[in-house]
Backbone:
């Protein structure tokens, strides 16, 4: 499959071990690898709370798994520490960790892959810091440990996909938390993997599809007919065949351009909303948030869409999960106009079902080059409304969202104030220094 012509460099994929739990452990003065600790999300949206992160010791002692286990799975053991998430802390630590990485590679060669993983192209810089890539990886680990108290695992490869597989399958199980895969070691490092779902890019459904094709291991995937794989699975089949041979021709510098930009927001409600006024309060809040984002980007929208997701019970009774409708509008970023059109869509299509999800999107965006006045409305009133929108935006920017809110957001159904405290859907945390 591969030849000497395949792209070959030195790539590190670095993962922060049990990141959220480790950050919390360090903040409390514990060794992240030795304290039994879990980070538990708020209860409202997760039926009692979802475990976002578990320390290695909590996994060992109580067999807990992040994003699978819930509050009801927690043992009543005084040794186990249960703490709420602090997303602002984790974001700050992620920035600090990537600043360490930038000491070993150009900033253009450091790509945050997620909040706890980063890809480093060390092709042109590793020789400045050691005699081998593995030695440099160990140096980076020590630097992060000394500065932030966090442990990292490193996958090394000739390309990003090799580094990712080395990280997931080997680095997390070695004494120095470093794993390596190169083109020459693909047969012993990749083809020997018998559990397909252990490999990045292969989920349960994909593995089931491969088993249907009589492919049960990475060796069988590497020696399957690539043309039949592509015929059966499309482009994904060809990509999986390449992964089995450790081939990755992706260009990390390439920045895709989307065909059409859109600006939107969505929310999973903390409970089933059955009262129309409560549902409309949240629609207004999200609509105003979308309008504010349009103004921030100096854009106007010519199309609004509203997604309403029903509760499980209502979906079972109605036969639909919800409804989605879009509406062309005169170009606008005005709070009142946007919320008026969204409420029109809602009232036209809602038939009393309990609601659990609400999403608002704006599309067909154009540059805001000036306000277009409506001939049928008072022009002075229109100008005042536009000015008021920007004044409210400035107050929110300078003093925080909660310093000026609409009265409806203080009612029982309002969620904007609580959402303003969240980061990534979870508690942002207060002081953490």
Residues:
């Amino acid at each position: 499959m591969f030849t000497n012509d395949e792209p070959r460099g030195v790539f590190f994929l670095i993962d922060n071990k049990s990141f959220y739990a480790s950050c919390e452990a360090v903040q409390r003065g514990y060794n992240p690898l030795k304290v039994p600790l879990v980070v538990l999300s708020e209860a409202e949206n997760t039926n009692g709370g979802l475990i976002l992160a578990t320390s290695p010791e909590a996994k060992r002692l109580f067999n807990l798994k992040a994003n699978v286990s819930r509050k009801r799975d927690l043992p009543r053991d005084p040794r186990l520490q249960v703490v709420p998430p602090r997303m602002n802390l984790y974001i700050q630590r992620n920035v600090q960790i990537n600043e360490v990485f930038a000491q070993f590679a150009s900033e253009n060669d450091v790509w945050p892959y997620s909040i706890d993983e980063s890809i480093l192209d060390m092709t042109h810089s590793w020789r400045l810091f050691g005699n081998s890539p593995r030695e440099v990886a160990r140096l980076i680990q020590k630097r992060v440990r000394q500065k932030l108290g966090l442990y990292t695992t490193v996958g090394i490869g000739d390309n990003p996909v090799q580094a990712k597989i080395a990280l997931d399958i080997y680095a997390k199980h070695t004494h120095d938390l470093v794993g390596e895969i190169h083109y020459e070691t693909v047969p012993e490092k990749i083809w020997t993997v018998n559990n397909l779902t252990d490999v990045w890019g292969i989920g349960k459904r994909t593995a089931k599809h491969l088993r249907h094709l009589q492919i049960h291991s990475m060796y069988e995937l590497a020696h399957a007919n690539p043309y039949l794989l592509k015929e059966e699975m499309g482009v994904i089949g060809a990509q999986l065949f390449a992964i089995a041979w450790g081939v990755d021709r992706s260009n990390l510098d390439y920045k895709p351009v989307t065909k059409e930009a859109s600006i939107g927001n969505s929310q999973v409600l903390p409970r089933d909303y059955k009262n129309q006024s409560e549902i409309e309060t949240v629609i207004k809040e999200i609509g105003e948030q979308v309008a504010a984002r349009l103004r921030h980007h100096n854009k106007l929208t010519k199309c609004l869409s509203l997604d309403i997701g029903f509760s499980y019970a209502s979906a079972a009774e109605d036969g639909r999960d919800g409804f989605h409708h879009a509406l062309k509008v005169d170009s606008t970023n005005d709070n009142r106009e946007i919320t008026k059109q969204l409420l029109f869509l809602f009232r036209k299509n809602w038939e009393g079902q309990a609601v659990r999800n609400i999403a608002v999107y704006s599309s067909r965006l154009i540059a805001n080059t000036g306000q277009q006045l409506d001939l049928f409305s008072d022009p002075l009133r229109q100008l005042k409304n536009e000015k008021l929108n920007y004044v409210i935006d400035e107050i929110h920017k300078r003093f925080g969202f909660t310093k000026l809110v609409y009265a409806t957001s203080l009612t029982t159904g309002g969620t904007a104030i609580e959402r303003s405290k969240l980061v990534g859907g979870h508690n942002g945390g207060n002081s953490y220094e």
User: Anything to note?
Assistant: DSSP finds 15 helices and 15 strands in the chain. The two ends are 52 Å apart (CA to CA). Residues 334 and 388 are 10 Å apart (CA to CA). The mean pLDDT is 86.
